[in-house]
Fold each of these.
Amino acid sequence: MSHAAVTAPNVSLRRYGAIEASDVHDFHQVVLGLDGAMVMAVDGVAQQIDAGSAWLIPAGARHDYAGVGANRQLVLDLPAASLAVPERLFEHARAVTVDMSLAQLVHRIAAHATEGSVDAQGDALNRRFHWDAAARLGAALIADTGTLAGARAAGAGLDFARIDRWLRAHLSEPLRIADLAAHCGFGMRRFHQLFIDAFGETPHRYLQRLRLDTSLTLLADPRLSLTEIALDIGFADQSAYTHAFTRRFGLAPGQWRALRH
């Protein structure tokens, strides 16, 4: 199957038919079980996916799939470096179990998702949905220890969930890599290199994306002003936040918040 270039996350509902099909694409993909079941084989390893389980598929990995009766899956298409998730999470294809909180999030997002692949760079309202849903799913995937179990060994001992919790707890502060390294039990130089190897970029660059991803959820709370959000996620002022947000998402945060379903 051929695909148009995907440069932003895309979240959609899929129903897989009984006839086996194959696919390869240049973006990562997470197939999250919702209703019914389907069987997927990636690089020759087959696994049935149903509610409470998922496949993590790296870019470039061939995967063969077929539905088992009536089924629905929530699918996250994730270009590398679009969302703040560790690149090492997709080093190998693997089927994983998901915890209850992630399974509940999948159902909430599915209630608002459209069926089939939707252009994530389409109209502004669609773009906001895809980014909002992807940011929530990305955060939940990192927090889910079942999802991370196979990635941690490949990450040379880095605890991705521990790092993510620390960064989120200190978003409003300047990044002190020495403190984060000590929190994870490493010297600063060793940790810095391990972080780049596992996350695909420096801690500062990753933190910038995490701050902006986090702000998507904060923008949904009308009680928070843009200045409060900017300061809460570590920007010096609203102007700096607006500039970074607009460059990343194509709309100013005020415009993003004003979109209505």
Amino acid sequence: MKIVHVASEMVPYAKTGGLADVVGALPRALARMGDDVTVVVPFYGKLMETRGFGARPVKSPKGDVQAQVGEAVVKGRLLRMELPGGVKIVFVSQSAFYDREGLYGTPAGDYPDNASRFIFFARAAIEAMLSLDIKPDIVHVHDWQAALVPVYMNSLYGDRKEFARAKTVLTIHNLGYQGLFPREKMHKTGLGWNMFTFDQLEYWGQVGFLKGGIAFADAITTVSPTYAKEILTPEQGMGLQAALDYRKGDLTGILNGIDYDTWDPKKDEQIPAKFGPGSMKGKSECKEALRMKLRLPMREGVPVVGIVGRLTSQKGFDIFEAALPELMRREVQFAILGTGEQRYHKLLRRSAKQYPDRIGLEIAFDDKLAHLIEAGSDFFLMPSHYEPCGLNQMISLKYGTIPIVRATGGLDDSIEQFDPRTKQGTGFKFEEYTPEALIEAVDMALAVHRVPPEMKAIRQNAMRCDFSWGRSAREYRRLYDKLIRR
């Protein structure tokens, strides 16, 4: 099967979140299954050049692409490379659009021309397929930045014989980001005003790129089964619940996987001691190293709870803030790493100063420390308000670091509540989004930690879990097969 992925991010070349991890891993998993896979991504100029990768310009005329953006004809260039394992990458280069400090904006806000940047990218991705003679069976696009591709393939490019058999799939990684722009930007798309309607691209008087993808893609996926249900509700539908409900027969939730080449304590080069289900001695050494790194005192029998991620209300830091005084009454230490909203930076710095023996904190992005927290912690806390999928809880399982999560989205799908009586389950979950429910879940975890046989059992359960991309890729492959047979 010939599959083309179109996305604005891909590890290791450009990343702001989990989207990049998925686009880096899923195509490789599909290629291992024998599919012909190409990924189309923007070339972010100096951000990518510093990584020293080996993409080469495609010779003219095949390497030249152009697309109409409003009244302007914007020209770009294609670069191409092939990864070990056979995945081909096509980079769309357009220096005025992509050679910038960030992918979508700066700390001051989004780039004001993001509509033009990703109108061009969507059309250039289609032009690249035509220029390079790629006749896809499946065109799989990701999030709002690529969501206009199915719209264009069903309108401006609807009569191209090269796409006669192609089916389109849109994956929504986070419905909170929709690509909404003022109605004056509609003319930039090159689409007729007859498509600026509530059932196509119009969203409360704005142009909605993601809404267009929802209307026109042959299939829609999200990154977990529970999230696929949650986004049909007013609480989590972000204003698109009616559009999604109309397409719910074509909506599927497929849980993301994780890359066990990167995240495996038996071969992780970023931790001081390796370990696995058969020998856990290295985990104790990692815990000691973590405490030293974060200047936490060594305390026999006291568990460490790790937190890694964005310090935002969406990630549950509002209820964590409310729960913190009570949590500080427990025999527990916290190892916290991340960046986010300034209010939480200030809160955590103040709390770390007040409780230096209980809270170890780094306000930073530090991949090596992230590995050490996963390896050296006893538990991992994710009290998210909503979480489309989440990766850290699955990583934690592999490292025998037991997740404490709110039962939402992919957190609910990937973690099974532990039952001390049967010794079945892989973590601890709470339903209500309240500090009291969070504290209760932490208390359940601490109670298990005080009983070594129970703690050993839950760790063994956790480390046996399989959340590899091979499992997820097989589900996507079944979806692709179903679409092609239509």
Amino acid sequence: MFVFTNVTYRWPGGADNLVYLLVEHLFRETGEKVMIFGKEDSYLVGRLSQNGIGFEFYDIDDDAGYAKVGKNDVLVLSSSYYGLKKFRRTGCRVLVWNILTFSMIRWNRLQFLGENRLAERVRFFFNRGFLRFLRARNALVCMDATTRRELDEYMGASLETPIIQVPIKVSENRHGSARPGEVVNITYIGRGDEEWKVAPVKKIVGDLRAFDLSARIHVFTSQTDLFERELAGCAGEGVGISYHTGYYGERLQRMLLETSDVNFSMGMSALESASIGVPTILIDPTHSGYPPGYRYRWLFEARDFSLGEFVDEHSPISGSMDLRQVIGTLRDDDARRSVSERSFDHVRRNHAVGIVFERFMNHRHYVSIRDVARFTPNMWL
């Protein structure tokens, strides 16, 4: 039985949707259930229950649930978290499927050592040893080439980590061929809980202003406070901003089909729009700012399942289009139809849940939870 844990978010996010699709596909195809450790009011638990997907749920803070995990169960981890040491006594097996390198290199925070050079060296020693061990046992996989490259940079060597890409449901290209009106409708999908998730919208608004372009931006998010604070005063003079909360799954896709001429998103959110044929720009996140002259790229131009990478003012420019060229493509009938079909085909060939599920199930290399503990002092105490 597979075990997914740290399921606590009350709003949808990429990792939660990824787990939902795998759990749903497993249950629909085989009738097999998974174990989920999280919070009962989390988005993932609620959605699985609402849609009649069978699973076994245990509260993440209730020690009794961990007694249900056996040595043949597989704990799928994307990062460390405060409750990981509770699994040590279960004897389960572990597969590390990495979403963000940032989370991977924080297995050993060892906060009691403080923030100094010695503490940094100790953390790096354990983290590097753990990653090398996982890779030697083939129990480490990445979700895209960007994560793999960042891991290699952290390690100072090529691990040649295998990739199991992010899944999405794909059926048919449902995006219409209607030409955009005088005001182009741009959509963005992303939670509004951290500034780096708001930064892409600020970038789009800035480029609209710079090129004196008119557009309506529709933000699909879980909460609006941070967006409204960061984008205060941005609306007006040809740029309108609307917020839509509580949309996910089929309901989100229907709204995208009604409102979107083009979607700008990062991560799994870019797959959401492309999976129904909406022309999709893969935009990068940033903690600081975009490099001067940052340019955009279509999702289908990404290689090795890349879903974006963190950039800053000194990052090389990776795309080929400015916003004026993106909108020009949308106003050309043949070009617009082409980017719609290519966005859809990219997802259908590379990210369809059936394809990803098969790769996930065929990867049968694990380590024991006790092996994880050897490299993770957080689990010793």
